[in-house]
Amino acid sequence: MELEKQLDYIKKCQEIVRRSAALKGRPLTFYIETFGCQMNERDSEKLRGILEEIGYERGEGEESDVVLYNTCTVRENANTRVYGRLGKLSSIKKGSPDMIIGLCGCMMQEEQVVEKIKKDFKFVDIVFGTHNIYVLAELLYKTLTEKKQIIDVREKADEIVEDLPADRTYFFKSGVNIMYGCDNFCSYCIVPYVRGRERSREARDILRECERLAKDGVRELMLLGQNVNSYGKNLDNGISFAELLKEVCRVDGIDRVRFMTSHPKDLSDELIKVMAEEEKVCRHLHLPMQSGSSRILKAMNRRYSKEDYLDLVGRIRTAMPDISLTTDIIVGFPTETEEDFLETLDVVDKVGFDSAFTFIYSIRSGTPAAKMEQVDEAVIKDRFDRLLKLVQERAAERCARFEGRTMDVLVESVNRQDKDLVTGRISNNLVVHFDGDESLIGKIVPVKMEECKGFYYIGKRA
Ligand code: SAH
Ligand code: SF4
Ligand code: F3S
After folding, report:
1. Residue 338 has pLDDT above 80, yes or no
2. What are phi and psi of 141, to 5 degrees?
């Protein structure tokens, strides 16, 4: 029902856009800027799909007729950036009053943000949240016909709308949402509040999408969810993530399968087994540890200890000795002491991550950690620098282990600095630059890993 309604709004918008383009004597354009994680990236592909269906063409940045910011709010600096950008947009809009400015994504799910937009950013035309990106055409139609600020932010998702158009960034790889939302409520994290409760898609819908993508030329899939390991738990007769992964590997034409993110507490031995057995599953696992201190992990509500984490890493490495492990680490979580921090360094040293995203703890209002005793900023900065140094040393050692080997590379683009090189990734997710041209994009080719440059390689076609 909802799908038909939205397709109808797409038609209505098409008519308006066609007339407006004829009047202006040029096609109308759009620009979407995406902040945050792969969920938002994938949502933006769907938003682009809708706008293109309506008849907008891709524009060059903020001078476009429709400008949409798909926002993130996981850390405070993400919000600050959006407000800064809005200031600039306001002066552009003064010069072209027909321009439509839209805001969507995680920030919009916060009440105080929407209040601020109503008060300080009246030139913003449409505001919508994470639960209803599929209503873009409807909101656009309203703002085109009613010329007033339209706000449609919902507290939760009523349904999962399948089969809307999507315009993929890459023709050869794609993200596939397998679930939405998060129920884990880690005490520092705002995601469960802005993305809502955990909802899994039906396996048959996911597989149908994967098959369609494969027919469309996609070779690499990234299964997306805040905690893919708890996939299926809210479905009647749902299958496990391990079973789903196995099914996805059966899809003809797909050569590589990745997934993100895995919560350590839910990573099953069944999944390790499937990963080890299935050749298409990439030799890379992103396993956010957040902290190495069991006391801090408890305060974070992560529901595993330092020992659990190390034990899990051990089991994964036994099954797949060659696997690359990456992680997320937060420094300066409330009450973190020097001893707690040394535990984090200890795990980084013991595990040897292939890379790690390190974050300074950011207070998110409304989360339990916001009310806990905060750590001094200078202390955090010092810890952050020490952590980064160790992470980089260990990552460089890990990266070097492929030197001299020949490995399959999925080519993603022509190198930006040197037109005689192309850039791609090995199954372990490491980036390799090597000799080649545009015709290789989207192909998987064997490459000799000649020289490790710390966190990427210079290679040669084998
Ligand atoms: N669902 C994923 C993470 C999504 S958010 C998981 O559980 O692993 C991505 C990363 O942002 C988190 O892993 C965490 O390291 C970081 N992060 C989340 N909230 C944060 C905060 N308040 N301050 C600093 N970093 C945070
Ligand atoms: Fe946030 Fe934790 Fe959910 Fe990840 S698992 S999105 S860190 S609450
Ligand atoms: Fe940011 Fe929302 Fe992702 S808060 S990290 S864009 S789920």
Report:
1. yes
2. -60, -45
Q: Which residue in this structure is represented by tokens 């819908």?
A: 205
Angle, alpha carbons 280-39-276 (nearest 5°): 20
Closest ligand 2 atom, residue 226 Cα:
6
pLDDT higher than 80, residue 207: yes
Mutation test residue for ligand 2: of 37, 183, 189, the one with most atoms within 8 Å of CB: 189
Using a 10 angstrom Cβ sphere, with 0-12 exposed, 13-18 middle and 19 or more buried, the burial of residue 363 is middle
Which two three-digit tokens encode residue 190? 């705002």
For residue 32, list its beta bridge partners: 68
Cis before 261 (ω within 30): yes
Ligand 3 lined by 449 (C-beta under 6 Å): no
Q: The tokens of 437 are what? A: 């041209």
Distance 368 CA to ligand 2 centre (A): 13
Q: Which residue has the tokens 């802005």?
A: 194
* Atom of ligand 2 lying closest to residue 301 CA: 2
The rounded Å distance from CA 330 to ligand 2 centre is 12
* Region 60-78 average pLDDT: 95
**Pocket lining: 226 vs ligand 2, CB cutoff 6 Å:** yes
pTM, two decimal places: 0.95
Residue of 226, 230, 261 to test ligand 2 pocket, by largest number of atoms within 8 Å of CB:
226
Residue with tokens 């007339």: 19
Q: Which ligand is nearest to the CA of 39?
A: 3
Q: For residue 354, what are its two tokens?
A: 């292939």
Decide the pairing of beta strands 406-414 and 444-452: antiparallel
DSSP character at residue 281: B
**Which SS3 state, helix, strand or coil, does residue 28 take?**
coil
**CA dihedral (288, 81, 361, 379) positive or negative:** positive
pLDDT in tens, 368-392: 999 999 999 999 999 999 999 999 9
**What is the tens place of the pLDDT at every residue in 238-281?**
999 999 999 999 999 999 999 999 999 999 999 999 999 999 99
| Closest residue CA from atom 3 of ligand 3 | 37
